[in-house]
Structures are given as structure tokens and as C-alpha cells.
Design goal:
530 residues; alpha+beta; five-stranded mixed β-sheet; 21 strands; 47% helix
Length: 530
């Protein structure tokens, strides 16, 4: 048999080396002492939590090798080394078992290929998960006590260095922070204007900042650390299994300490800055496209990938001309290289609002009369894909129903074991709850698949009517208004002189080449299909 071993080692570099070498020697001797075994590889992840397997590179490599038939058997010291997440432990061991790959937990004396292997593994995995939960609670309690004593749990930020829980001013970077507050509060410049000026001057963003933006500027302006205060636990871990950080919206008490460290900004300037932000409601939404216009957020630049934003210009005659322009061009002008050697700006020209709507009308008028064979071909492919999806959904639903029956049987077996006094009530309840959770997840998945199948069936049945419906629309201009455009247009990708229009429920874009001429009442849009 081709046998592999898996272990997780310490985060400390020296301990890591010693731990890995000792475990490697142990597994080599253990495997070589069995004449029927052949060592494939020893997989080791370095200092990564066991509650989540997604970030364990070597673990995932081992699973991938097993799927290819490279491994027949996996050895690991104990369940807690393999995973401290019960769901992951059972999921991966079941997956491996389906490939005829067993897992032996040496210290726990469990072989997943044995008849009672999964039951014993479930109990041990639950105990490992519970231990992880208790450890997590102890760590959180310790961190909270440290926070209350002023220990800083935060990375470096612009203007400050954080070392061993203490925060100190970085004078070189503090100059930029003071400049931002002065430009915003005293010079009355917007966050967007500050970001643009910094970018054009080639002032390099530092410490986790990819680029200067209005969002970055506002985060600096709102950060209480710059006035010497400290607010911690703004984000918290969702749970001890996923380790996902989420905003703390009242789930836990935040820890605030006033005058905690040396300030970069005096309190008078800080309070005036916060007053301006509050009174004028200057949030990040200021720099986003207003949703007043039907195509807000729907026009994408084909050259740089940014969205288009609308700009209105009032002429001497009093007439207002509205046009759409790439945000990158609005911010930085035509394409050029800034002081840092980075490319900024965009060469995509603006699109007049009237020209845009004329392009959509033209596309609708031609959608049925040009390249009809290609459109029908694409629709046929789309229908075929729906049919294939139905088959795969049916197969998955059948598989899930079988798994539900298996889980129900296992649940009954656990209850019988409790009645026969083979396991304690607490173990029985814990295992029963786990099976109930699994069954509930599978039932929800079945419901989702059935809804998707119903939706695709409805789409499949309505495909034949698409042309008739579109024909009715394009032949009646009474439908043409902003509300109609909003409903029928999914998105548009703009290139110089060309726009790709994606209509809802239609599988391919309509490419329109356009030119404009004239002014005022004589303004025209000349369109043709590409």
C-alpha cells in the first residue's frame, strides 16, 4: 500500500524544524516497519490553525494526491492534528473513503475503514472541536484584558508604528497625515480632490494602501488614533471555526481609551473635521454615481474596466447637456504616467446621453433583422445548456436524497446505542444534533436545486416567445422611456465609437458603432451594427 502521513507543526521557527524532523523520523520508522507499506510523502503544514482546512496548503495537496490514486492510506497522530472542525473531519474522511483511501489516527486508535470508524471519529472530532472552542474563549478573554490595559492589537497605519502592543508616531509619515487634515478642514478640499492631488504628485501610499482614493482619505479622517484615542474591537471574529472578521455592530462591547498615546492631530482640529463630515454628510457615496439616472452603474469602460459617471453642463442658451465619462478619465484625464511610474487616466471619450439612448433604440430595431441565424444558434446553445443543467440537478437531488436516508439510519443507530447503554446521553444528543444539521443542509440544498430547475424550465419554455415579445417592444416606441431602458438593459461596455449593449434575458451583446454630428435641434446619431 502507498502510505502517506500528515502533521501540523509549531509556529516557532526552531520548534517547527525540530517538530517536523521528529515527526518525520517517527512516521518513516512506523511505515518502514510494515513490509506491506511504501512511504509516499509526509505532508506538514506550519503553524496553521486546525479549525479551518482551506488555508492548509499541504493538507489540500494531500487530498488532491489521494484523488489521483497516489495514496492508499493516510497516517496522522490524532484527530486534533487532522482537523478540529467536526464537519471538515467527517467530510474529508468520507471523501477519502469514497476513493478507497483510509485514515488511521494513531493515538486515538481509529481507522476510518473499520465498520465503527466513523462513529468513533465523530465522537473524537466533536471533542476536538469543543476543545478548540474553549481555547478560543480563553484566548479572547486574555486579549480583552490586554486591550483594557492599553495593549494595541492593530497593524501599522499611516503615521504610526505598532510594536509589541505599543503605538508610536512615525514622524516622516505623520507629515502626510497632518497635510490631509489641513487640506480637508482648513483648505476645504474634498476627499476626492486630495486623493487626486496625491496621485498626480506621485506621493506613494504606504502600509497596506494600494492607492489613494476618497475612501482611503475618509478612513484617515475618521480614525480616532490620530487624536490620541484608542478604540478596539471594531471588528470581531464571526466564530472560532471560520475565523472570519466581521464588523462589530453591537455583538460585543468595544473598548475605548481616551488620550491613550501621542496624537498627530490636535483635538480642536479633529473635532472640527468630524463636525464637517457629520454636518455635510460627506461619506464615500459622494464619489459614487448617483442612482437618479437609469443607467447609473451600467456603463463599463472597455479600455480600463472602470465605470462611467454622468456629468451635466449648462449651455449659455440654458439647455443642459448630459454626458457619460469614464471615472478614471474624469479623475486623471487622458492616459499618462504619474510620479511613481504608474499608469493613470484613460483615453476613452465621453458619450452623450442622447447618443446613448439612440444607440439602444437602434439596437432594439435591428435585433430581429440582422444576424438572426447567429442569434438563433446562440439561443439553441443556451437551451441545450439549460437541459444539461436539469440533468445534473436531478442527479444531485437523487444523491442528496440517498444521503438523507443514510443519515436518518445513522441517527436511529445512535439512539439505539443510547437505549442499549453503549453511549452516554450527552454523546447521543451531540451526534443526533450533528446529523440533524447535516440533514437540514441537504434538504435546503435540494429545495434550492428544485427552485433552480423550475426557473430554468420556465426560461426554457419561454425561449420560443422571446422574438415575439421583443418584436412587440421594438415596434412600439411608446415603451421607450427611462424606466423601460432601466428594465431591459443589463449593462453596456463602451469603447471609442463602439458600445456593446447587453439586454436582459438575451444571451449575446448587440455591438453598435456610432458617430454624432450637429448641435441642438440638428444633433444626430449615426449608428450601424458591427
Amino acid at each position: 500500500m502507498n502510505v502517506a502521513a500528515y502533521c501540523r507543526v509549531s509556529t516557532d521557527e526552531e520548534d517547527q524544524k525540530n517538530s517536523f524532523e521528529s515527526q518525520k523520523l517517527y512516521f518513516e520508522n512506523y511505515i518502514n516497519n510494515n513490509p506491506e507499506w511504501s512511504l509516499v510523502n509526509i505532508y506538514a503544514d506550519e503553524g496553521i490553525t486546525g479549525t479551518n482546512t482551506k488555508k492548509r496548503v499541504q493538507f489540500q495537496k494531500m487530498i488532491n494526491d489521494a484523488s489521483k490514486g497516489i495514496i492508499d492510506l493516510i497516517l496522522t497522530k490524532e484527530v486534533s492534528r487532522f482537523a478540529r472542525n467536526t464537519v471538515d473531519t467527517l467530510s474529508y474522511t468520507r471523501q477519502l473513503k469514497s476513493w478507497n483511501v483510509g485514515v488511521i489516527f494513531l493515538s486515538d486508535n481509529i481507522n476510518t475503514l473499520d465498520n465503527d470508524g466513523e462513529l468513533r471519529l465523530t465522537i473524537m472530532a466533536s471533542m476536538a472541536q469543543e476543545e478548540s472552542r474553549k481555547t478560543s474563549e480563553r484566548v479572547k478573554w486574555g486579549i480583552k484584558r490586554k486591550m483594557e490595559n492599553g495593549f494595541v492589537f492593530a497593524p501599522d497605519l499611516l503615521g504610526y508604528d505598532v510594536r509589541n502592543g505599543k503605538i508610536s508616531i512615525n514622524e516622516e509619515e505623520a507629515v502626510t497625515v497632518r497635510k490631509i487634515f489641513d487640506m480637508f478642514t482648513n483648505q476645504k478640499k474634498s476627499a476626492h480632490a486630495i486623493a487626486k492631488e496625491f496621485t498626480e504628485q506621485g506621493i506613494e501610499p504606504v502600509k497596506r494602501m494600494k492607492s489613494w482614493s476618497s475612501t482611503t482619505i475618509y478612513r484617515i479622517l475618521k480614525n480616532e488614533k490620530y487624536v490620541g484615542d484608542l478604540l478596539q474591537k471594531k471588528k470581531i471574529t464571526e466564530d472560532f471555526l471560520s475565523h472570519k472578521l466581521v464588523d462589530n455592530d453591537g455583538q460585543e462591547e468595544k473598548i475605548f481609551i481616551a488620550n491613550h498615546h501621542d496624537p498627530i492631530i490636535d483635538r480642536e482640529l479633529w473635532e472640527e473635521t468630524q463636525r464637517i463630515i457629520t454636518l455635510n454628510k460627506l461619506t464615500n457615496q459622494r464619489d459614487k454615481v448617483s442612482n437618479v439616472y437609469w443607467c447609473s452603474g451600467k456603463i463599463i469602460c472597455g479600455l480600463c474596466g472602470k465605470h462611467f459617471s454622468i456629468r451635466a453642463k449648462k449651455l449659455k442658451s440654458g439647455r443642459i447637456v448630459r454626458s457619460w465619462k469614464c471615472i478614471e478619465r474624469m479623475h486623471f484625464g487622458v492616459k499618462k504616467i504619474n510620479g511613481l511610474g504608474k499608469e493613470i487616466g484613460c483615453d476613452n471619450p465621453y458619450i452623450n446621453q442622447i447618443a446613448l439612448e439612440n444607440c439602444i433604440k437602434f439596437a432594439l430595431s435591428k435585433i430581429l433583422t440582422i444576424n438572426q441565424e447567429d442569434i438563433l444558434k446562440d439561443l439553441k446553445s443556451y437551451i441545450d445548456s439549460l437541459s444539461r443543467n436539469d440533468d445534473s440537478e436531478d442527479a444531485e437531488i437523487d444523491l442528496l436524497n440517498k444521503k438523507i436516508k443514510e443519515s436518518e439510519k445513522k441517527k436511529l443507530k445512535i439512539i439505539k446505542m443510547y437505549i442499549d447503554e453503549q453511549i452516554e446521553e450527552s454523546e447521543m444528543m451531540k451526534l443526533k444534533e450533528q446529523y440533524d444539521v447535516e440533514i437540514d443542509k441537504m434538504k435546503k440544498r435540494i429545495l434550492l436545486l428544485m427552485q433552480q430547475k423550475k426557473s430554468s424550465t420556465q426560461t426554457y419554455n419561454s425561449i420560443d416567445n422571446i422574438f415575439n415579445k421583443v418584436k412587440d417592444i421594438v415596434e412600439n416606441e411608446k415603451y421607450y422611456n427611462e424606466n423601460f431602458y432601466n428594465k431591459i438593459v443589463d449593462k453596456m461596455v463602451a469603447f471609442p465609437g463602439i458600445i456593446d449593449i447587453y439586454f436582459r434575458n438575451f444571451p449575446i451583446p448587440i455591438k453598435v458603432k456610432y458617430q454624432t454630428k450637429g448641435r441642438g435641434k440638428s444633433y444626430q446619431t449615426l449608428c450601424e451594427l458591427v
